[in-house]
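User: What would this chain look like folded?
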Amino acid sequence: MSNSQKKFTNQLIHESSPYLLQHAHNPVEWHPWNEETLAKAKDEDKPILVSIGYSACHWCHVMEHESFEDDEVAQMMNENFICIKVDREERPDVDQVYMDAVQALSGRGGWPLNAFALPDGRPFWGATYFPKEQWLSLLDQIRSLFLTQRENLEKQAADIEEGIRQNDLISFNTKESEFESAHLEQMVTGLSRRFDPKNGGTLGAPKFPMPNIYQFLLRFWYHSKDQTILNHVENTLAKMACGGIYDQIGGGFARYSVDDHWHVPHFEKMLYDNAQLVSLYAEAYAATKRELFRDIIQETIDFVSRELISTDGGFYSALDADSEGEEGRFYVWTKREIDEVLKIDSSLVSEYFGIEDEAYWEDGKNVLVKAKSLLTVALKYNLSEEEVKKKISEATHKLFLKRSKRVGPGLDDKILTSWNALMLKGLVDAYKATGENKYLDLAIGNGSFLIQNLLQENGQLYRNYKNGKATIPGFLDDYSFTIEAFVALYEVTFDEKWIQHGRQLTDYTLEHFFDPESGLFYYTSDQHTDIVSRKIDVLDNVIPSANSSMAKVLFQLSLIFEKPEYFKMANRMLSAIEEKLQQFPSAFTNWGIQLMNLVYPYHTFVITGPAARKEAKSGYDKFLPNVLLAGTKQYSDLPICENRISSSNTQIFVCTGSSCKLPVDKFNEALQQMNL
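Assistant: Here's the prediction, encoded as structure tokens.
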């Protein structure tokens, strides 16, 4: 049915976000978030309803169906409010403002997020999901309060605004800190109190993967040689890989597990989760050489390459949790379906995947898990492990083909810069750990896509891309994650365009995002005009803080470009939040990684000469979190490579800070120098 034949069409029809377009034919007169809509609210002196969600959000779909598609609800909303729909993934800045307000009021948050604001945009009340009748009642109450008790709402909005402002005034340390390894040990002690020794991860439910915590722990193990830490990381990654949070048939991770043992996922698959988990499993494989981890790398990248890649090299955002209106329907199996597809091997495969046992979920449906080891199944069926492995592989392929005939979950095909940068970094890490050239090819293709479509000549990035258009100026994470990805891509190619683009982006952030008072960076640039307030975000969450990422790249670029001012800025950033590391370790693990870079020896390997890349590649499969690679075959504009280039032979200089040892010929010799 064409748009002209639809019963209702609102202003969202002109947007590109799949989430906003899902609501374009609601009877609610939705508007996008922009200056025109905010001006309309002021002109009409109406309260604003800001409804925020994302395309893979199950309860967002439920509320749309129950309320926003309902004529009675729409009439109430249209007559009394200026209704704004926001895709939180496109506008995390808007989401952050209203989420802070709702959490300040109730102590809770989530999506869909529905915030009520004065005509000037200041929030005075909000909540998450409501069933239709409760939603109608709430709308009527808010309408009445705005008409009869507006002064009280004005006061509440002012109180919320002041409360959030005070909360945002994190007591950043303004003095330079003395960085010590004891601070890292205190962080690990704090984290370890929440370790789940049986199921991995942290105690309790739900369970989120939290990749950055385990990247931090891997690095701590590397420096401390504390085997209990490595054991916990390995156990966590193995339990996730064998659980239902991981798609045992098609690869890739769901967003989180609703239980405490990684069994039943919240079924949406997000690019940012899979990108970071590829990096984590690549590092874990480099550290342990455990084949399970290599399998997960391959299967997850295969999933992303199959389901989330555009023809021009960009990566889409997500797959929905729902298909045919039912959460998880695409992914679950009944015993009968397994029997029909696998016939004679059904019993063996059901044993392996725990059908109607460990895998059982509800209503006769199973979320597949690796319930038994190959050896256990082999012994039961009097087969070799290789024979069982072959049967499982063949069965998985049959189930994949059968599943592909089902109606699949919806695709959110917008392309976000920061999430693409995380995936690019994941591909580089996977290439280093496995040596698979196809991963490097994908990474280079994605980097080229970002440069061609989202980077402007002046160093400005856009956040989003769809249908050939980029429309939203980038936020700090778009810059910091892209810089981090470009540094990683430079390390494995020695193509200086990547590092030069990284410096260009860094200088742009310094000009447009930097706050001289705190020494940190705002999440929004001075080019963003349609914002309620500018915030400085420092907490590492499922996705690391853009500020912690900036501290890391400033540190790396200070070495490559020999710019001490970058180094001082990185130190000042870490000093600003260093006191928080021990208090709230799980919220500062990316900062903890940068702290390790300072308190433990950190080396730059400068590799120059005809076989520079070949020699560098010989060390890619090693887990070396305290080594930065730089190099060139014959010529370089980079300060770190100048005066270290020989046209006749390949040399490796091991540098710590501004001091370098005498050059050696082989990577292994450089490793020996590093450990002296």
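The domain at 3-168 is CATH 3.40.30.10 (Glutaredoxin). If you want, I can go into more detail on any region.
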